């Protein structure tokens, strides 16, 4: 008896969707399953937010520029794809925070703003003496009585007080997530802090000695905490696309409707064709998925999940134009009490020296966050002007930039607000009852970092294969 072919579709060609497709193909081959796979991508290229630009000897990332070395997910994937020899490790340097328009070094040993070394923390000008004493109260404060699903801001202020949170912790988390820490879910953003508090009581004492966290992996003065590829992150996308040569890839095509037909899903595409499949993996932002299931009364809670829009400005200079030790650091984040449009700035020439020509510097500045997103809609020239003005306030710059590259990411950063895990889990369970052949993955659901997206793709592929085998 001939085994029935598994017909599957992956909707979305970003890193989550490409990973799902790759692992579907890999696991089907390992299990001896015949697979008919279609990838559907709305634009005319794969990779989603991963976009690498090569210009004048610079390697410029319009989207994510790296992934954390402590997670081995992408290392393993790169090895399978035969591109592990192209991996490179990040450089190291001091990081800064702008408070009331002044640039301050982030105290050595800080982990997401939590101090672990007393000398640098006491010597820092980020907090007054009263603020330092209040932060030190973490050492004697009892652990939280509530659950991990509480506002990150409330949790941190309880442990360290208002001053340290406003001047250091909030700028770091806002720079990373683009959100409001008073709405951000601790459980969905940095659950390790809650776990450490419950285990060690004090975060200051626990962060440094908790082996599960590996504090050094969050310290920019440590070399190699990030990784990328010699020619940029596009290397991974290209390798995945090449590995997927055995499937159908539809670019510039969208799914307009989905219907449950017997035990299959019928996808209506905007090219006036239909696709009937056994399994569908949606790897799209939640704003794109929710309308497809609205006619069935599903995924209503996803409609309320906010996303932040951001823009990045990559700006190149001659090294002779900048004479400042801060320019050779890893970059800076900005507190809300500063008159800056920039929320974060990375010194790419320090982080990735191999991606910047000799005698040059490259900064990547971010603008836009919850409550301050209108700036993203300004013209390129206006955004460039504001970013350059902020850079000149932070770092003494005597010359003009060689060039700038502006990139906008509208609704690109889903906000994991309190209750995120419960809402997304409930949405998936309701969807599974009506469309048991559909899975949802991506940065809207279980982690926005690249390793988390790859892991979701791998898990979704495994689930699809498992269901197919159960139907034998």
Automatic annotation (TrEMBL):
InterPro entries: Amino_oxidase, FAD/NAD-bd_sf, Flavin_amine_oxidase, Protoporphyrinogen_oxidase, Zeta_carotene_desat/Oxidored. One of its GO terms (biological process) is heme biosynthetic process. Pathway: Porphyrin-containing compound metabolism; protoheme biosynthesis. The keyword Oxidoreductase applies. Its cofactor is FAD. The lineage of its organism: Bacteria, Bacillati, Bacillota, Bacilli, Bacillales. The gene is hemY_1. It comes from Planococcus massiliensis. FAD binds at residues 16, 41-42, 255. This is Coproporphyrinogen III oxidase. It catalyses: coproporphyrinogen III + 3 O2 = coproporphyrin III + 3 H2O2. Pfam families: Amino_oxidase.
